[in-house]
């Protein structure tokens, strides 16, 4: 009986095994439905053209109408991208190699292989080329550098555009900066909706130029739109200061020769948000992000701080041909030291601009480069004695020889003539002007050979940028004043005159604003 049971079980076991084998193997010959492919695949290998060795960490970027997609080669020099079908410009890049770009049309459900053999060269040595394969705005930076940086940037003058300025004689206890001060751009202040817009040329009444405070400031919106750092973080523009190449610089031939072209959109321009607000776009292209990683360059500072002698912002020409410090290899930050995204501006200024580090003096001696015994040779003792009351700049900036060095500019159709004291209804003119802007009604340039105006200055200033200080207040007598050289400048500006007692609105008042000069 036991033997029969064993035989019977064996027979049933064989049957069960046959049924199991049939069910398991049936997919091998039965038709199986295949889901439709919705994306394409792009893959390949990147090697050195001369040695055929693989390149690890090389970047691949596919740019097309469906969007921008990026990858980095792995330890075998291979990359893979899954992306929607379409026509793309596919670029391979690596530090120390020349970019290589090829066009390809990718089809959904199809794997396309594109291999690259890169040629070694000094160009395209972008600091972060092997570190990041995509850029998603500030969060990409914060993933490595920490979220505390966002708070630092938010509290800095470069974001807030204002800091307390106690030495400025202005209502509001000197809490001032470029937010509510007339900026040297066509138009008026940030508070008066001059953050971004199109300047219509008075020459033909048709052509426009993107302009406004937002062209420099490092967020999509003015600072007072953001209640906190967390609210502002996504809109911050880390790359404007930290990128080696930014915006229209990618279109300069010397940059293309050095780093290759940038296939992604990178120009800054005024765009309209879904809410109907005009703002400046930002360059958030991958190659711009990959060009970050080194120390902030003077060229990056000059993206905003340029053209002061003949245009709109604070600085002087800082090139080897125009400045001895630049010729010696110094950078802006050699004197304007930086601490946690706060920057020392220096306290001896008249215009009330923001200063992150007022406790840090900026100057030839104060910055530690020169000493009170800076002079040597004949008459050295007498010259060094002058340093108590006379600044280095007084002697060493002996002329204002810069072509088109603006001395007088009006930004409004109704202009106060400081010479006659009369309000003039002046029509816009374009003669001899770099760009007419919104309301450039009058521009006058300093003749070549003009010397600076020498004034006693103690660091204080009036609301209209008049320096305070006198001989009686000189340092050798226990005061704070020293002799400084000044560029004479008169500017017809718009400012909020609501605080003026008994103000009258005649022909020179427009929408509650009055035109004045500084």
Describe this structure in words.
The protein has 518 residues and is α+β, with helices and mostly antiparallel strands. It is built from 13 helices and 27 strands. It has a five-stranded mixed sheet with strand order 21-18-25-27-26, with no helix packed on it. A hairpin with a 2-residue loop joins strand 16 and strand 17.
Summarize the SSE layout with pairings.
Layout: H1 2-29, E1 40-48, E2 59-64, E3 67-72, E4 78-83, E5 86-93, E6 100-106, E7 111-113, E8 116-118, H2 138-145, H3 148-155, H4 157-160, E9 162-164, E10 168-169, E11 175-177, E12 197-200, E13 208-211, H5 229-232, H6 239-242, H7 253-259, E14 270-272, E15 278-280, H8 286-290, H9 298-301, H10 324-327, H11 332-335, E16 338-339, E17 342-343, H12 380-385, H13 392-396, E18 406-410, E19 414-416, E20 423-425, E21 442-445, E22 453-457, E23 461-462, E24 482-486, E25 490-496, E26 509-510, E27 513-517
Parallel strand pairs: 1-7, 1-8, 10-23, 18-25
Antiparallel strand pairs: 1-4, 2-3, 2-5, 5-6, 9-11, 12-13, 14-15, 16-17, 18-21, 19-20, 22-24, 25-27, 26-27
The radius of gyration is: 32 Å
Number of H- or I-type helical stretches: 13
Quaternary structure classification: single chain
For the largest beta sheet, what order do the strands appear in spatially?
21-18-25-27-26
Task: Name the poorly predicted regions.
Answer: 1-36, 182-188, 412-441, 494-518
Whole-number mean pLDDT = 76
Structural class: alpha+beta
- Major β-sheet annotation: 5 strands, mixed
Strand element count: 27
Helix content: 10-25%
Distance between the termini: 119 Å
Beta-strand share of residues: 15-25%
């Amino acid at each position: 009986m036991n033997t029969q049971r064993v035989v019977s079980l064996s027979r049933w076991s064989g049957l069960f095994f046959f049924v199991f084998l049939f069910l398991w193997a049936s997919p091998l010959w039965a038709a199986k439905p295949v889901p439709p492919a919705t994306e394409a695949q792009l893959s390949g290998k990147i090697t050195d053209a001369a040695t055929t060795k693989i390149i690890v960490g090389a970047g691949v970027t596919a740019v097309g109408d469906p969007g921008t997609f990026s990858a980095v080669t792995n330890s075998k020099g291979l990359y893979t991208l899954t992306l929607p079908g379409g026509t793309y410009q596919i670029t391979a890049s690596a530090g120390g190699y020349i970019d290589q770009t090829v066009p390809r049309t990718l089809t959904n459900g199809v794997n396309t292989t594109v291999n690259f053999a890169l040629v070694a060269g000094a160009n395209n040595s972008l600091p972060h080329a092997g570190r990041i394969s995509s850029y998603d705005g500030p969060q990409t930076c914060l993933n490595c550098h920490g979220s505390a940086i966002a708070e630092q940037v938010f509290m800095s003058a470069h974001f807030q555009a204002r800091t307390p300025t106690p030495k400025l004689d202005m209502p509001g206890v000197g809490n001032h900066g470029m937010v509510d001060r007339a900026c040297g751009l066509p138009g008026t202040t940030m508070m008066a909706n001059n953050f971004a817009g199109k300047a219509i040329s008075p020459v033909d009444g048709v052509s426009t130029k993107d302009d406004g405070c937002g062209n420099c400031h490092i967020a999509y919106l003015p600072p007072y739109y953001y209640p906190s750092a967390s609210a502002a973080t996504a809109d911050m523009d880390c790359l404007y200061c930290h990128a080696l190449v930014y915006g229209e610089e990618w279109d300069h031939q010397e940059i293309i020769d050095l780093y290759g072209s940038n296939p992604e959109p990178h120009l800054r321009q005024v765009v309209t948000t879904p809410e109907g607000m005009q703002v400046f776009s930002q360059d958030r292209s991958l190659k711009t992000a990959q060009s970050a990683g080194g120390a902030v360059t003077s060229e990056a500072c000059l993206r905003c701080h340029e053209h002061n002698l003949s245009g709109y912002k604070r600085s002087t020409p800082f090139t080897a041909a125009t400045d001895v410090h630049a010729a010696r290899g110094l950078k802006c930050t050699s004197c304007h030291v930086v601490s946690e995204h706060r920057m020392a501006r220096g306290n001896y200024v008249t215009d009330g601009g923001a200063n992150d580090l007022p406790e840090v003096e900026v100057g030839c001696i104060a910055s530690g480069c020169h000493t009170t015994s800076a002079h040597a040779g004949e008459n050295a003792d007498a010259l060094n004695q002058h340093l108590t009351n006379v600044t280095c700049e007084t002697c060493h900036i002996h002329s204002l020889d810069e072509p088109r060095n603006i001395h007088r500019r009006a930004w409004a159709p109704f202009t106060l003539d400081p010479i006659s004291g009369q309000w003039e209804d002046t029509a816009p003119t374009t003669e001899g002007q770099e760009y007419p802007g919104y309301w450039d009604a009058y521009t006058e340039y300093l003749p070549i050979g003009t010397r600076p105006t020498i004034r006693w200055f103690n660091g204080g200033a009036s609301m209209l940028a008049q320096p305070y200080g006198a001989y009686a207040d000189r340092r050798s007598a226990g005061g704070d004043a020293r002799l400084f050289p000044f560029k004479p400048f008169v500017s017809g500006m718009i400012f909020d005159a609501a605080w003026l007692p008994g103000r009258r609105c005649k022909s020179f008042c427009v929408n509650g604003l009055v035109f004045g000069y500084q």
